[in-house]
Structures are given as C-alpha cells and as structure tokens.
Design brief:
The chain is of the alpha+beta class and 581 residues long. 74% of the residues lie in helices and 6% in strands.
C-alpha cells in the first residue's frame, strides 16, 4: 500500500512543484523572444533572490509538514490545528517583510551586488518591482497546497495550477507582446498569476469545508521553535543556493559574459520543469516518512526509501535521457538563431544537467528522512555540500579550462559527492559498508517494532478476512500474550476488516486492499488497519446504535467493548484505524 500511495499522491505534488517553474519558463520565453537577451539576464539574476525567499518559506513548509505528519501518525488533531494556524501567520508576515525589502532594493538602485552591467541593471530594477507584488502569494500558496495534500484535496491544487497557467500566459502576452511593458510586464504578469493561484487554493479553507481551522489563539512557542528547528536544515540548501547563484553568476560574467548567464538561466528554468518530478517525489515521501516515524512503523519507513531508489530513480533515468536527446529542439524554443553562441551554450546545458536528476532523488530523500528523524548534523553537512560547496568549488576550478560547460559538469559532480557522503556516514555509523536499507538509513535499534515483534497481512477478499483471526491469535500467543487477549486481537481484526470489505470494497469498481499490522511489544497489543476505500469511521456507527437495537452493528460494538482504545483518522485518502487490546 505504501508504494501504491506514493504513486497515487505523486501527480499532485509534481504539479505543485512545477508552478514556480512554469512561471519562470513563460517569463523566459517572452523575455528571449519579445524583449531580448538582456531581459533574459535580468530574469536569471533574480533567481538567487527568489531562491532566498523560497528558502525561508521552505523552512516553514518543511518544518510544519514534518510536524503535521508526526501528529497525524499520533492522531493528535489539536496540535495539527495549532501548527496550521501558526505556519500561515508566520508565512504571511515574512512575505510582507520580503516585499518591502525587494521594493527598497529596486527604487534605491541597490542591486549592484547582483550585476554591474549598465544595460541589464535598469531592467533588473523594473523586474524586481513587478516580482515584489507576487511574493506574498508565492510563499502562502506553497503551504496551502501542502495542507490541501493533507486533506486529500489535490484536485483543488490541480485546478489552481490551471488557473495560474491561463492567467500567466494571457497577461504575459498582453503586457509584453502587446503593451511592450518589457521587464516590468514579465514580472507583473507572473505576480498577478500567483495571486490567482493562491486565491483558487485558499477558498477551500475559508469556505468552512476544511477540517483545518485558522485560529488566532496564543500559539505554543515550543511548536514555533520546533518548526524552525526541523525545517531549518532542509531549507538551508535553498539559502546556500542563493550564495551559489551569486558566485556562479559572477564567474560566468567574468569568464563568459552576460550571454553565459542567459544560457544557464534558460537551461535551469526549463529543466526545473523536469526537476518538479523529483521535488514532488520528495514531498510525498517526506510526509509519509514523518507519519511512519509518528507511528513508529519501521517497515513503512524503509519501504518509502526503498521505493524511491528502486522505482523513482529508474523512472528519472528515462526522463533524463529523453531530455538529453531533445537538447536541440528545447534550446530552439528560446533561441531561433542557431549561430548565436547562446544557442549552443543552452544545448550543452540540456545535454549535461539532466544527469543530476537521478542522483538528486537519492540525496533529496535522504535529507527528508534525516530531517524527520532529527539527524540534524547530517542534514547540515549534506545541504552545505549540495547547496554551496561542490558546485561553486568545481565551477571555479573548471571554468578557466571548460568555460560555460564547467557549470554543468560541476552540478553532476555535486550529485556524486552527495551520495558518497551518505554512504560514508552510514558506514561510519554502523562500522561497515551498509548492507541493508536499515543500515543505510542508520535507523536506531530502539525505533519501532523489531522483525519478530510484528506481522503484516494484506487482505483483498472476504475469504482472506475470515481466516485472519486464527493467524493473529497464534502470532500474539507466540509473543507471550495471554490466550484471552490473543483471542480478542484476532476477533477485533476480523470484525473490522470484514466491515471494511462490506462498506468499502463494494462502493466502486476499483481494486482495494486492507493492510493489517499487528504489533506485540512490551506486553502491548496494537492493531492497525489501513484501507484505501471511502471514509468510514466505526465510532460513528457505534454511537448511532447506542441505546437502540442490541443486534444492530453488534460486531463494532463488541470491538469497542473489548478494546482499551480505538482511534480513527482519514489521511491522504486512507482510513487508518488503531486498536489497542
């Protein structure tokens, strides 16, 4: 079910990750075709600033996502609401602050740290004014999408992306091609598009239909600190990339010229559309990993990482190869003159940079896992090398000899260095080369249930459901649980799984399964049943029949009478029922 869930949730997260990329591709297209190479340089020079604002937002988005995942795993709805409210408040305030900063940089002409080119700098100043208008929705929309993901409302995000694309394209054509507003028009179109995108997402939360509710009650400062502490290491990579962008842009300006910045920006922005796939993969895995950590589910935790390596990486290799083969037609979209040096510089970007993407999947997933499991030193180390040191260092070494291609080659070397750091860390922690996924992830022995302390069964039919009781009873007794509680465990599981089949499997024509996990640890018996059917809360049935017909829903009532606790929640479109006997 973990693999199935990862691929079901993936399209929405890819679309979410692609929003900013689509914005930059549209801007790049209109800049290169209607304004000129200098305008394309202005778009590229804004990249580091945009990365910096994104780093702060990512810190809050990453921290809140991991906390929300853990609270979902623990079924602590009150804390989930608290994190939601606190996160939105902090993001809105930070967006306002960044807007003011960008406007001041532009109107006071304080952009000399970005470029000294007299032709490009005025264009950049006007471009910044237009971008400032869209900073608040850019920051907030990412978090709204994350919470829509939690509420299993991915279709709203898809509709919002469609609105954004239409508004962005129409306004770019109107402002740039028709009204000739040049750099300011490029930025203004994308900013208005971001407002449309955010409003399309936010209406669900203000309509009263969402489970999450914004409240202005005094927040718990401990959660604020936790949000920053957890999110900071992962967000540092964007912060490092800000400085990396400044360094690389300056090296290109010195050794290649403004044409090099234009080529690199073009290749980067179009490839970012394909990078949305690994970013979407990471977003899904980060949330599932944090839920598994909240549930102390060792097997699900390793299965997420295993799926990333065995399924995601091969898929990305195919996509990368397709991009490399299409290098010439992709470059021709932006630059029509094949004799212009910028054309071949862009072609080589499409030929080399895609090699980074399969390598990046492994590093991104490992960073997400290290964040969720509080391996902060490892996150700091990985993000420092991945975000700043490797690319900057190898570009500086290679650019006098390889010219423009040095930047592309340095990015590939960066991916190799990051994977080597992961392997060396794991080998040092376990004392030998990692041979299992548990060793590669350096999962503590004390985490979750050991292999002999749990059993898992996937049920797909009523025949399998009626046979499950005996298996669970025998497993519990083999772990030292008394005969009475072992019998109750088997009875409760059979009853609840049969209810899932009766009320869920027959509601549509899709293939469904109910995944049962039984944990016997420290004399505790914990039953967890997950299914991908329509929402079904057994507590509602139990309450409806209290005081009524004694024979009505007798199976559910029996389970509630023998269990010490029963918790239900619906997350990511899954019903999750946890029973303690």
């Amino acid at each position: 079910m973990v693999r199935k869930l990862m691929f079901r949730l993936l399209p929405v997260q890819i679309i979410l990750a692609a929003v900013g990329t689509i914005n930059m591709i549209v801007s790049s297209y209109f800049a290169s075709n209607y304004v000129g190479t200098d305008a394309m340089s202005a778009v590229g020079l804004y990249g580091p600033l945009n990365m910096f604002f994104g780093a702060f937002a990512l810190m809050l988005v990453g921290g809140s996502s991991i906390l929300c995942g853990e609270f979902l795993g623990q079924n602590r709805q009150d804390k989930l609401q608290e994190v939601y409210s606190l996160d939105l408040l902090l993001l809105a305030l930070s967006g306002l602050f960044f807007t003011i900063i960008v406007i001041l940089l532009s109107v006071s002409d304080m952009t000399g740290f970005l470029t000294q080119d007299a032709a490009v700098r005025p264009l950049l100043n006007r471009y910044l004014i237009g971008q400032a208008i869209g900073i608040i929705p850019l920051i907030l929309s990412n978090q709204f999408a994350s919470f829509l993901f939690i509420e299993n409302k991915g279709r709203i995000t898809q509709a919002a992306v469609f609105v954004f694309i239409v508004v962005n394209l129409v306004l770019n054509y109107l402002f740039v091609a028709v009204m000739h507003m040049e750099a300011f028009g490029l930025a203004l179109a994308s900013s208005i598009g971001m407002w449309a995108y955010m409003i399309a997402e936010a209406w669900y939360f203000v309509s009263g239909r969402s489970h999450l509710r914004f409240t202005l009650k005094k927040p718990d400062l401990k959660e604020c600190v936790s949000m920053f502490r957890i999110g900071l290491p992962g967000a540092l990579i964007n912060g490092y990339q800000t400085f990396r962008g400044l360094i690389v842009n300056r090296l290109l300006e010195v050794y290649v010229g403004a044409v090099g910045i234009s080529a690199f920006a073009t290749a980067n922005y179009l490839l970012a559309l394909f990078w949305a796939i690994p970013v979407g993969m990471q977003a899904v895995s980060r949330m599932l990993m944090s839920v598994a950590i909240g549930e102390e589910d060792r097997m699900s935790l390793t299965e997420v990482m295993r799926c990333a390596i065995r399924r995601y990486v091969p898929l990305m290799c195919v996509i990368s190869a397709a991009v490399m083969i299409s290098a010439h037609p992709l470059a021709h979209v932006f630059y029509k003159d094949l004799s212009d040096p910028v054309y071949m510089m862009t072609v080589w970007g499409f030929r080399i940079l895609p090699l980074c993407m399969p390598l990046g999947i492994i590093c991104m997933h490992y960073v997400s896992y290290a964040q969720a499991s509080d391996k902060q030193r490892l996150v700091y180390l990985l993000t420092l090398f991945d975000g700043l040191i490797s690319v900057s260092l190898f570009t500086a070494i290679l650019i006098p000899f390889a010219g423009m291609n040095s930047v592309y080659i340095a990015n590939v070397i960066n991916g190799i260095v990051s994977i080597l750091i992961i392997i060396i860390y794991a080998a040092k922690s376990c004392g030998h080369f990692p041979r299992t996924m548990d060793e590669l992830m350096v999962i503590p022995d004390s985490f979750g249930a050991r292999e002999n302390e749990f059993t898992e069964i996937s049920v797909r039919s009523i025949d399998e459901a009626v046979n499950i009781s005996q298996h669970i009873q025998e497993f519990c007794m083999s772990r030292g649980i008394d005969k009475r509680r072992s019998y109750y465990a088997g009875l409760a599981t059979e009853e609840m799984v049969c209810n899932v089949i009766d009320h869920g499997f027959t509601k549509d024509k899709k293939d469904h399964s109910a995944d049962v996990r039984v944990v016997c640890k420290d004399n505790d018996v914990i039953l967890r049943i997950k299914d991908d059917c329509v929402p079904f809360d057994p507590q509602e049935r139990n309450l409806l029949t209290e005081g009524g017909d004694a024979a009505s829903n007798i199976g559910i009532r029996t389970v509630y009478s023998i269990a010490s606790s029963i918790k239900y929640q619906n997350m990511f479109g899954l019903n999750v029922l946890t029973i303690r006997i």
